[in-house]
Amino acid sequence: MSAVTAGARDGWLRVAAPVAVGVLGLLLWILVVDVLEAAPRMLPSPTAIAEELVLRSGIIAEDMAVTATNALLGLGVGAVAALVLAGLAVASRPVDGMLAPIVAAIAVVPIVAVTPILNTMFGASSQFGRVAVAALAAFVPIFVNVLRGLRQTRPVHRDLLRASAATGWQRFRVLTLPTALPYLTTGLRIAGSLAVISALVAEYFGGPADGIGTAIATYAKSGRASLAWAYVAGGIAIGLLFFLVTALLERLATRRSPQ
Amino acid sequence: MEHGRADAVHAVEASGVGKVFAGRAGEVVALTDVDLTVRAGEFVSLIGPSGCGKSTLLRLIADLDGASSGALTVFGKPAHQARLDQDYGIAFQQAGLLPWRTVAENIALPLELHRVGREQRRARVAELAELVHLGDFVDRHPDQLSGGMQQRVAIARALAASPKLLLMDEPFGALDEMTREYLQSELTRIAAETGAAVVFVTHSIPEAVFLSDRVVVMSPRPGRITDIVEMPFAGERDEALRESPAYFERVTAVREALHGAPVERANER
Predict the structure, then answer these.
(1) A-B interface: how many C-beta pairs under 8 angstroms?
(2) pLDDT tens across A136-190, in order?
């Protein structure tokens, strides 16, 4: 009985504690900005931000769609490239040897550093540079995780499929790929946040005049702090959405993992 | 059709079979000069201390590893061909079920790999699930089953393609004693119902004596067969047998055959 009530109280606390912190923070924020009027110029009151968010929801949503689409395309392209290349690396040792230094190179290059070059390369009117940056950022964690996952098959399962005279393709489809699935979704979860950040930051370095990042930069420079912060909220919403969806996928995939 | 011939052909025939593994510290002789015949429908256990090559011999029969020397045939064919033709089913110490598949999908795996039609597969799975008394559990996943139930699924899977030879590598080794005795009785019944020959690797003398028509005693360094003990219990393998003097007499016979081998005690690991 007491264990049950303790469990229920823990569950309630897990929700209530962060909510309480949030409310406290908000109150403190209002106190500093509106009551004491001690805030710097670029930190407006949360009510002002919320006002802008409601008032401009239409154009904020449009820019969110642009940035989210870039991030999603980048994530998709990066994931497909990572899957194909990891599959090749597992199938053939020479390919593995050739890919290893390339992936290491991509992993250590700060992706954002090449963004201005990519943006200029593909022109000011094209989203391609932004998608490419997101794809590059997403590629590495997915590739590393999938490559690892494809090597996790257990000896007893390999013996079983050999005893069942399975072909190489059957072994990949029935055993290797399902074994790697939880690793793929872990890679996707990490890459999802990276893709959003990269797509957004890429907008600071030129390209078409749309997207969350472009808007934040513009309004911050022109001193419209509340609107800039409303766009930041939009960016947070995109990041949160990507994280929740990929985390859910990961949960589904690890439900029946081998270990 | 070729029933008469199939009965005449031995399930397993090994002559002068040896296996050498290339290790870092040179070659290791895992098995040397094994001569063994398993008749169709016969239950043969391989017993011996660790390192005696009993699992290696089973893996050679299954063509999971290749023999280094000698001749090995399964139903008159080279082991490799017998594997491709699905002439045997196999079960390991770990059940080795695929955790993302249901019980039914696990049992059906060998049939699926050999492109048996969906309807036929469904009928066969229902039949096998009944055979191992798991009819109510076909929609469960392996992590919802006990160890003993998982092992029964593995046995059903091994029997899926109706093989005439069943290879088992310590399938009950990781189970508790009660479950173990229950599954031994079940295996006796299943072997009788399917008429399949069984090659059964075990550490346990009572298990080997209870199940087998013949117990093959092996010894290590190098792995080889040192003795073959006949069991006269055909058709009377029930709980009463476990208490009978004849049974204890055979247990003693196997134990002495094992200890006659100049190395450490059996059942030690």
Answers:
(1) 50
(2) 999 999 999 999 999 999 999 999 999 998 988 899 999 999 999 999 999 999 9
> In terms of domains, do A121 and A15 share one?
no
> Does A174 touch chain B if contact means CB atoms closer than 8 Å?
yes
**Residue of B120, B118, B138 lying closest to B129 (CA atoms):** B138
Q: Are residues A80 and A4 in the same domain?
A: no
Query: Which residue in A160, A175, A179, A184 has the most chain B C-beta atoms within 10 A of its own C-beta, making it the best mutation to test that interface?
Result: A160
| Together in a domain, A212 and A129 | yes
A24 and A57, same domain (yes or no) = no
Global ipTM = 0.85
Using CB atoms, pick whichever of A163, A256, A258 lies closest to residue B141. A256
Parallel, antiparallel or unpaired: strands B88-91 and B165-169? parallel
Measure the CA–CA gap between A154 and B225, rounded to whole angstroms. Answer: 31
How do residues B105-122 score in pLDDT, each as one tens digit? Answer: 999 999 999 888 889 999
Residues of B with CB below 8 A from A162's CB?
Answer: 64, 83
Does this model's pTM top 0.90? My answer is no
B116 CB near a chain A CB, below 8 Å?
Answer: no
Residues A53 and A26 in one domain: no
Tokens of B91: 């079960």
Q: Is A162 on the interface with B (CB under 8 A)?
A: yes
Mutation pick from A154, A157, A158, A159 vs chain B, by most beta carbons of B within 10 Å, is A159
Same-domain status, A103 and A32: no
Domain carrying residue B223: 3-87+163-260
Residues A144 and A221 in one domain: yes
Closest CA to A171 of A239, A112, A90, A97: A90
Interface contact B83-A165, CB threshold 8 A: yes
Shortest Cα–Cα distance, B86 to chain A (Å): 7
Q: CA–CA distance from B267 to each of B49, B83, B173 (Å)?
A: 6, 31, 11
Asked whether residue B11 falls in the same domain as residue B63, the answer is yes
Residue B267 resides in a domain: no
Q: Provide, as residue numbers in chain B, all residues whose Cβ is less than 8 Å from the Cβ of A258.
A: 99
Sheet with B197-202, strands from edge to edge, namely: B88-91, B165-169, B197-202, B43-47, B214-219, B224-230
Query: In this structure, are A60 and A166 located in the same domain?
Result: yes
Half-sphere exposure of A179 (CA within 13 A, CB side): 21
- Interface touch B100/A178, C-beta < 8 Å: yes
The domain of A120 spans 44-254
Give B62→chain A minimum CA distance, Å: 7
Q: Give me the helix-helix angle, A225-254 and A57-91, nearest 10°.
A: 40
Number of domains in chain A: 2
Measured between CA atoms, the residue of chain A closest to residue B108 is A164
